[in-house]
Amino acid sequence: MTNVVVLIEAVDGLLTKPSRELLTIARRHGSPVAVCVGDAADAAAHGADVCAVVSPADVVEPVASLVDALATVCAQYSPTLVLVTSTIEGKEIAGRLAVRIDGGVITDAVDVREGLEVVQPIFGGAVTLSAHAIGCAVVAVRPGSIEPVAAQGAGSVVAVTIPEPTRRRASVVSSVAGAGSARPDLAAADVVVSGGRGVGEHGFALVEQLADALGGAVGASRAATDAGWIDHKFQVGQTGTTVSPQLYVALGISGAIQHRAGMQTSKTIVVINKDRSAPLFDLADFGIVGDVASIVPAIVAEIGKRRA
Amino acid sequence: MRILVCVKQVPDSWSERQLTDGFTLDRDAADKVINDLDTYAVEAALQLQEVHGGETLAISVGPVDAEDAIRKALQMGVDEGILVTDPALAGSDAMATSLALAAAIQKAAVDVVIMGIESTDAKMSVVPAMVAERLGWPMLTLAQALTIDGSTATVHRQTSVGHDVVTASLPAVVSVVEKFNEPRYPSFKGITAAKKKTVEHWGIGDIGLDASQVGVAGSRTKVAAAVPRPAKQAGLIVEDDGTAVAALVDFLVERRLV
Fold first, then answer.
1. What is the CA radius of gyration of chain B?
2. Which of A13, A185, A233, B5 is buried deepest, with most CB atoms within 10 A?
3. Which residues are CB-contacts of B169 (< 8 A; sequence separation ≥ 6)?
4. Cβ <8 Å between B14 and A247
């Protein structure tokens, strides 16, 4: 049986959901060798046959140290597939590792099918590629692409020793938590909640509440930024930021052509507007004709209830 | 100090983007422009030069008409250009492209390399890190601000949880985000001056590579199929009748968005 090396992440000893998704994909293609910083007690319960544990003290630089650790594990287990989560750091790790082991790198994948066929949407989702790697496939998979399935793995624990680095590397001299916005970057966010003329001057608190409930970024139409209700940097559209998130929620936005140009490749579009004739409803996967002021608090409450 | 900025020519995101029968980017199908995110890297290079002096160079790997992207950088104020162009490069993936870029950067003998975070066409955003890995240089990612003091580069970057200050010794690769600065528009003087600036063309032999290392032959990924997204089906539009919110959240849960 071939080996699949998976970079997983645990919080308080428990695997994150994207990590469980990676292990689910890994199990279809071979025996999962999970590489984790610190203990991941439940990795075996999600299918890991080997838990290769890196000591947190050995991680001096988040990306470079993990590339070293993965390269070490790859040398030992000769995988045909390496899986990481497609975040900014995950993509950087994938690119560097591919150079190190002379593999093929594919990022933003949404699945790995039989025969190691990697599925990757491009051009804002307008086209889906299926591709193969020559040599080991190093694949960064978007979070939320598949449903994780629990499976018992052998879970034998081994320690990974990272070789002493010989290269010059960057070092983090200070790290301040909480200084930046807790919300994801508009351009890169998986979820964007935007408000327009219909939310009104005092309605942006609602936009923010829904964005936070969905873990998303806040956006706006030009009408809202021109009115001075929110800074211009939040504008989505032809003269603002182009977004292509998994989910785009438009609150009180009628859908001028220039706004549509900035968001029409979003995977799922939800539109809430009092005016049934708003052109943005044409793009909606799900639309509600009604008042943002009453609907948004109800959505936030409903999401809270489902998560409880 | 020699400051090098990488630029890429991409299909305009506003035009129809297509693939060829061989699944490579159809470069003739769309209008071509400099990758928007690279203009922030150009601005960062010019700002460094204003403080430290030295030369600025713009480099690109691509077909002959990719020189237009370099010319845009020259119009903004970059001193000279290098276009790595060779028929053998056609169809290069991230592995092959990063190999050619790294070899050319080595030949250009620079102190710092500045790149945008991703191209608006391939959107893989892996090439800067792969170039750094190949060069064995440190990489400072996602810079919002960049300063150089002696032989040390320092960047500030926003993270999902806060703010980091990261340093590295030179030479180093820096990627900048669009929060870095506002790219300048080429002035009339800049446009005129750019016409007299040189853009050297380097073939793969000039950077010590051969045809087996780049292009389709040197790539480590192969595309088997490209399927256009099916036409969008009409969505479900409901009146707010008291059940609409629960139906919406059901829909989001079903699509794994909540």
1. 21
2. B5
3. A168, B138, B151, B152, B153
4. no
> Across the interface, which of B121, B140, B238 has its CB nearest the CB of A170?
B140
pTM for the structure as a whole: 0.80
CB within 8 Å: B133 and A108: no
**CA B81 centroid distance within chain:** 16
Q: Summarize pLDDT for A111-164 with one digit per residue, the tens.
A: 999 999 999 877 656 678 899 999 999 999 987 678 889 899 998 999 999 888
Residue B164 and residue B156: Cα distance in Å, rounded?
6
For the stretch A270-292, pLDDT in tens is 999 999 999 999 999 999 999 99
And the tokens for B176? 């900048």
- Residue A118 CA to residue A131 CA, distance in Å, equals 5
Enumerate the residues of chain B whose CB falls inside 8 A of the CB of residue A247.
252, 255, 257
- Alpha-carbon distance A156 to nearest alpha carbon in chain B (angstroms): 32
Question: Looking at beta carbons, which residues of chain A come within 8 Å of B244?
Answer: 288, 290, 295
Q: Give me the residue label for tokens 């075996």.
A: A44
Per-residue pLDDT of B140-173, as tens digits, reads 988 889 999 999 999 998 765 667 899 999 999 9
- In contact, B186 and B69? CB cutoff 8 Å: no
Q: For residue A238, list chain B residues with Cβ-Cβ distance below 8 A.
A: 14
In this complex, which of B127, B248, B253 lies closest to A270 when CB atoms are compared? Answer: B248
**What tokens does B159 get?**
């993270």
Please answer yes or no on whether B138 and A170 come within 8 Å at the CB atom.
yes
What are the tens digits of pLDDT across the range B114-149?
A: 998 766 555 567 899 999 999 999 999 888 899 999
Cβ contact A268–B229 (<8 Å) = no
B258/A214 CB distance under 8 A: yes
Phi/psi at A263 (5° precision) = -145, 0
Q: Are A99 and B164 inside 8 Å of each other by CB?
A: no
Residue A202 and residue A192: Cα distance in Å, rounded? 19
Most confident of A186-195, A197-206, A232-241, B66-75: B66-75
ipTM of the prediction: 0.86
**By the 8 A CB rule, do B207 and B86 touch?**
no
Q: Please list, in sequence order, all residues whose beta carbon lies within 8 angstroms of the beta carbon of residue A21, skipping any fewer than 6 positions away.
A: A141, A143, A144, A145, A146, A147, A148
Query: Which range has the worst mean pLDDT, A3-7, A59-63, A108-112, B68-72?
Result: A59-63
